[in-house]
């Protein structure tokens, strides 16, 4: 999502012609006789007959989602079905969507949500329909393989992503080069570099520039994503196949210990990390208070546009535990936003086509070209235009292709317990071992698993 209205309007003017050309090209293509293929032309299939409009629960204000607006316009021009986008208020969107689904309402045909928020809870509640029968196999093969399981339950796919939000390292390239170093790729390199970049510039005994920062606020999904990233690049995972915890493993302990040591042993990260959410943390980067930080790639525009140091920023893959090989020994943490279909929709078959089309080349191309979001369909990575539009695309695309995310029931409760445990370790109220043991015990007691 982008946050500059003038930029949005200018991009819409530029891309109106592009979208028109794309629509004209695709509208002549027909996939006949195969229900697993998407439809782009005549004759009108059964699923489109009598359907005038579909309503989509959009994840936030439309002014920040010009790619979605264009994508839905494209769907309308190709199929004749108007798409009504409801801009859900960001403060209450999860509660509002959950309430509507729980009441069995047909208000929204399609909903736009990160699977990590609501999978498998919405499926277990019987609110969604599977999409396998209308997803082309070739499309599935274009998605990062390790990201697909998080959209599934019992072999059925319920969510289709149209963008991803991988974790990346933001760093001040000028400062790194100024100490004769290169971007860090391992934890030991990160610590060594962060020590050089942690400075008391005026000699008053207070740190003016921290070498490295991360976000560990107890609010929402912040710690889930931050600890999850450290856990993954340590070679660990959150859950076993049977749904019981796997993060209390040696890898999980290494991840939590490293987070604690960055603050308390190496003293390269500020104690205030336990109050930072990602947005404010990236602002510290732009202001010069932090030299390096890990965050969500969706914040890249905010980071690069920050003052006064945004133009000096660079992006790389998050550093990993020493001795591991990306993609082989571990996956990077990623998430993303996806379409799913309401079981109570009055136009289920048409809604399924809209949801699935969001995972294809066209919708993902728009995400990259219009909003500079990271596509969830890796075939778009071959587009020279998209590659030229998204800064540091080569670095980010490698992260996406070697990324994963896990989902689990009772996610909000899991995140609350995880946050309390991680913060207790950073504050040194508990050892990392004690914190992990407490988290598992508390999750079991409160029936997270």
From TrEMBL:
Coiled coil: none annotated. CDD domains: PBP2_TMBP_like. It comes from the Bacteria. Pfam families: SBP_bac_1. This is Sugar ABC transporter substrate-binding protein. It comes from Aerophobetes bacterium.
